[in-house]
């Protein structure tokens, strides 16, 4: 893969895969990227990288890249190559026609968590200023929207509390529903380094991940709970802390609301939350829960890291708040080595949320019903913004199936592969009159598109990404956009064609506007980023060099708020027909729906999704390693090869959704988090059988 000879020039930029946000030197010969080398000055990675990032230039220069806009009258017709002017004019005319016929709310957009802050900001501005509604969402809807809800309600800010370096000071690390060695490898390596230095590890996960016992690391406690019972287990840990006198009374008295704490203490002390009372439900021995709770509560510094195994549940937001309760009750907030740390999936999903790509929030997490916030944007944009929240993505799709939502602009998301309950998603896309996909490749969603707008890869654009530790880093253009335009230019031209006057001449102007209108970003500029290399928000007058640790002296909301986290069992439970619970996740070599990693050299290390099944469950069904198995949920069915493995507990099966042929998400139900509609990807009751003829 590495070309002979010395590169001629190099450009420093940020990885476009996961939320770690590693810094890389892109080495080029002429206009050809030949190597990505991790940059030692990058604060998030300090010279390290993983196999995904190292090989990322492979997809950026892949021959499958689309180099010209494409248009067709219906999804049965072949694509027709057109110029940018014709494509943009066609989209604008279609969207105007739809709004004239079906109403202003009949169109919307999905912003990409893989695009830059500036590009996402423009998409939500396009929707609010040119579409005239709030129908904009981003992939956090299906991953970390419960994090935004839960941390805002308890702490006052919709983001993780720490920087990555904080883990170097942790004495006890609790990892809940996350697999950082595969999904966030560079941070996973840092976490393992701390474990080798003596930190204790608690893992809460139905699966035996690499952290539980991998090379050089071993969890002191692995609470292998039944999928769907996070809240019951975390409440049980809190019960131990409260009833065994392990609360940090001084922290709670100084930093938290007295009323909400008193209510929570009485609630959680109820015997129904005792580990023994929920043992049968969670499947975790009460003594293990007691011991883990004591370990977490008695550490000098205890840190919690969590992932989608927390959020992608019917009680995702409740689980986030149960975690926040634990951290506040034990005083593990506001200094190095502690905190509540969501490991965000996509490179810029934190940024996409910060930038207001939500139907209910403007940039900076201000609700659209807030007249002061709305007035600031209205004055700057010269429009009136609706005070009513728009449609969330699942509601846009449901409205489309009902014939009321007719047009969508999808920037860099592959809804036809990534969403749950896929058959209904496909039906919704088919029912729309104008589906516009902006992406690097003709992805699965492009099958349903009427217009395809070829986007630019991270090597072809300028801007910024914000990683999981709120770090804003520069993305720098190494080569010109293959199809001629960067993504922000496409959105700007669409806004102009829809007669909204958008006229930025450089990305820095967009960042300046973001800084002017978004309190957390008020001190951010390209000049500052060049000087500091990167900066963590909030970056403002009080913190001109950013904020590595939040909530140090007081919580952003003032006092920390305890929330009562009643456990409500999911309706996805095994029954006589569907005896197993499916949970889904990721593997190291692949990323999300695989559109990028399936087109890079490292992709060959994982060439198909497989179904992990415990030997006991496999034997009971006559299934051997490598057999094709049929998996059926109440939503649909698919087939995968079996991998017989003790990494899953009996009664649980596991797979990934990196390959379209697997149709994994056909199985995932329409169940979702009560607060945010984040889908319940992590719990699906399934029947698994050896496929006929296998
Ligand atoms: Fe890219 Fe994440 Fe790997 Fe870093 S850890 S190189 S950001 S995929």
General description of the model:
The protein is an alpha/beta fold. The chain has three domains: 70-141 and 347-458 and 477-500, Rossmann fold, CATH 3.40.50; 145-342, Dimethylsulfoxide Reductase, domain 2 (3-Layer(aba) Sandwich); 580-690, Barwin-like endoglucanases, CATH 2.40.40. It contains 23 helices and 28 strands. A seven-stranded mixed beta sheet has the order 5-4-19-18-17-6-7. Strands 23-27-24-26-25-28 form a six-stranded mixed barrel. A hairpin with an 8-residue loop joins strand 1 and strand 2. Helix 3 (84-102) packs across helix 20 (487-497), helix 8 (230-243) runs antiparallel to helix 11 and helix 17 packs across helix 19 (422-431). It is globular, with a radius of gyration of 24 Å. Iron/sulfur cluster (SF4) binds next to helix 1 and helix 7.
Judging by the overall fold, what is the CATH architecture of the largest domain? 3-Layer(aba) Sandwich
What is the CA-CA span between the terminal residues? Answer: 38 Å
Number of E-type strands: 28
Mean pLDDT across all residues, rounded?
Answer: 93
Global structural class: alpha/beta
Could you tell me the CATH topology label of the largest domain: Rossmann fold
GO biological process, one term: formate metabolic process
Protein name: Formate dehydrogenase alpha subunit
Organism: Tepidiphilus thermophilus
Family: Belongs to the complex I 75 kDa subunit family. In the C-terminal section; belongs to the prokaryotic molybdopterin-containing oxidoreductase family.
């Amino acid at each position: 893969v590495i070309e002979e000879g010395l590169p001629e020039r190099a450009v420093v930029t940020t990885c476009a895969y996961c939320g770690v946000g590693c810094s890389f030197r892109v080495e080029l010969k002429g206009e050809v990227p030949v190597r990505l080398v991790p940059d030692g000055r990058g604060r998030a990675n300090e010279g390290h990288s993983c196999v995904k990032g190292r090989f990322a230039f492979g997809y950026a220069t892949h021959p499958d890249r689309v180099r010209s806009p494409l248009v067709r009258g219906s999804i049965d017709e072949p694509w027709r190559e057109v110029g940018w002017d014709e494509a943009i004019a066609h989209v604008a005319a279609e969207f105007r026609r739809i709004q004239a016929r079906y109403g202003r709310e009949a169109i919307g957009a999905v912003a990409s968590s893989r695009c830059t802050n500036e590009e996402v900001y423009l998409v939500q501005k396009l929707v609010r200023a040119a579409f005239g509604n709030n129908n904009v969402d981003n992939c956090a809807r299906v991953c970390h929207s419960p994090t935004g809800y839960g941390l805002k309600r308890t702490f006052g800010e919709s983001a993780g509390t720490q920087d990555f370096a904080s883990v170097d000071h942790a004495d006890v690390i609790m990892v809940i529903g996350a697999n950082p060695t595969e999904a966030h490898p560079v941070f996973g390596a840092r976490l393992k380094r701390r474990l080798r230095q003596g930190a204790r590890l608690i893992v809460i996960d139905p699966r035996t991940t690499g952290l539980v016992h991998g090379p050089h690391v071993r969890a002191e406690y692995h609470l292998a709970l039944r999928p769907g019972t996070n809240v019951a287990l975390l409440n049980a840990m809190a019960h131990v802390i409260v009833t065994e006198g392990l609360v940090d009374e001084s922290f709670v008295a100084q930093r938290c609301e007295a009323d909400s704490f008193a209510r929570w203490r009485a609630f959680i002390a109820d015997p129904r939350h005792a580990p023994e009372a929920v043992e049968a439900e969670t499947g975790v021995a009460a003594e293990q829960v007691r011991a883990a709770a004591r370990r977490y509560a008695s550490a000098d510094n205890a840190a919690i890291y969590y992932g989608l195994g927390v959020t992608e549940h019917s009680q995702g937001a409740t689980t986030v708040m149960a975690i926040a309760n634990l951290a506040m009750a034990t005083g593990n907030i506001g200094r190095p080595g502690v905190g509540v740390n969501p490991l965000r999936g996509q490179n810029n999903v934190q940024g996409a949320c910060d930038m207001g790509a939500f139907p209910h929030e403007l940039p900076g997490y201000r609700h659209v019903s807030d007249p002061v916030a709305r007035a600031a944007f209205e004055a700057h944009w010269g429009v009136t913004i609706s005070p009513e929240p728009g449609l969330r993505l699942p509601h846009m799709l449901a409205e489309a199936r009902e014939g009321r939502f007719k047009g969508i602009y999808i920037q860099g998301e592959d809804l036809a592969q990534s969403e749950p309950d896929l058959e209904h998603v496909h039906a919704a896309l088919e029912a729309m009159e104008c589906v516009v996909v902006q992406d690097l490749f003709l992805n699965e969603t492009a099958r349903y598109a009427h217009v395809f707008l070829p986007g630019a890869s991270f090597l072809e654009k300028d801007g910024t990404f914000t990683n999981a530790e709120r770090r804003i880093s520069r993305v720098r253009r190494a080569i010109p956009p293959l199809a001629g335009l960067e993504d922000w230019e496409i959105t700007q031209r669409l806004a102009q064609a829809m007669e909204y006057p958008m006229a930025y001449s450089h990305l820095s102007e967009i960042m300046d506007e973001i800084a002017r209108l978004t309190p957390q970003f008020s001190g951010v500029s390209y000049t500052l980023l060049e000087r500091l290399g990167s900066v963590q928000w909030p970056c403002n007058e009080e913190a001109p060099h950013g904020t590595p640790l939040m909530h140090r002296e007081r919580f952003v909301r003032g006092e920390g708020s305890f929330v009562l986290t009643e456990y409500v069992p999911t309706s996805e439970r095994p029954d006589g027909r569907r005896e197993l619970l499916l949970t889904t996740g990721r593997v190291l070599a692949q990323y999300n729906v695989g559109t990028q990693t399936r087109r890079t050299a490292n992709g060959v290390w994982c060439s198909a999704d497989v179904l992990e099944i415990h030997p006991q469950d496999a034997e009971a069904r006559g299934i051997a390693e490598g057999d094709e198995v049929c998996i059926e949920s109440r939503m649909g069915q698919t087939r995968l090869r079996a991998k017989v493995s003790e990494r899953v507990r009996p009664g649980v099966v596991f797979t990934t959704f990196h390959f379209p042929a697997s149709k994994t998400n056909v199985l995932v139900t329409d169940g979702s988090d009560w607060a945010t509609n984040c889908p319940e990807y992590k719990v699906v009751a399934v029947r698994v059988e050896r496929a006929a003829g296998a």
